[in-house]
C-alpha cells in the first residue's frame, strides 16, 4: 500500500507548507487533512439551506425588536449568492463525475461476479445530496487512489467553496420546527400507494427568520422549497374549496329531487 505514496508524507502542501505531516498508511493525506475534508463535506451540507435563505436578503429588525417570520421571499435574488451556489454545484458535480468515471473503469476490469457498482448509484443529485454521497461512500477510496491529483483537487475545490460559503452563513443555522402534519408524499408498496409516515418540518433561517423549505423527518428526498410548498398548499386549498362546493351542490340537488 505504501507504494501509492512512496514518500509517506501528506500531499496537501497548501495545509502544511514545507513541513508536511506523516500520511495515513496507503493514502495521500494525513489524518488531520482527511478529517477536515470529511468535515467540510458535512459543513457544506448544513450550509446549503442557509445559502438558500441568503438568496433573498431580509433586512434585520431594529434593535430590540423580534424578527418576523417570512413566508415569501422578496426579490431580487442576491447575485453573489447565486454565483456561489452555481460554483459549488459545478465543482461538486465535477468531483463526482471524475470519481464515478474512475471507479467504473476499475470495476469493469474485474470479473462480473466481483463487480460492485451499487455504491455508484446516485439517488439525490442536489448539491448537498452529492456531498453526502461523496463523504459517505467515496472519500476514503479517493484518498488511496494512485494519482495524488484526485484528492488534492478535491481538497482545493471544497476549500474554495467552503471558505466562500462561510462569508454568507457565519453563525447562522437552520432551525427545524414541527408543523403538526404527516408527510404528504405517497409511494407504491406492494401494488398500492402508501403515505409516508414521516412528519413535516418547517426549516427556518435562524437569523433572518425566513422559511427556506418544508421537509420530511423520515425521508430527506421528501422536500419542498418554500415557494413551491406555498403554491402546493394554495392548490390544495382551491381544490378543497371546489370539492366542498361540489358536495354542497350534489346535496342540494339530491334534496330537490
In brief:
This protein has 257 residues and is α+β, with helices and mostly antiparallel strands.
* CA(first)-CA(last) distance: 87 Å
**Rounded Rg:** 24 Å
How many domains make up the coordinates?
2
Total DSSP E strands: 6
Quote the average pLDDT: 80
Q: Estimate the helix proportion, in percent.
A: 40-55%
Strand order of the largest sheet: 1-4-5-6
Outline the low-pLDDT stretches: 59-75
Count of alpha/pi helices: 6
Percent of residues in beta strands? Answer: 5-15%
Description:
With 257 residues, the chain is α+β, with helices and mostly antiparallel strands. The chain folds into two domains: 2-169, no CATH class; 174-256, no CATH class. 49% of the residues lie in helices and 13% in strands. The chain has helices at residues 13-16, 31-54, 79-107, 127-143, 148-169, 226-256, and strands at residues 174-182, 186-189, 192-195, 199-205, 211-216, 223-225. Strands 1-4-5-6 form a four-stranded antiparallel beta sheet. β4 and β5 form a beta hairpin. α2 runs antiparallel to α4 and α2 (31-54) crosses α5 (148-169). It is elongated, with a radius of gyration of 24 Å. It starts with 12 loop residues before the first helix and ends with a helix.
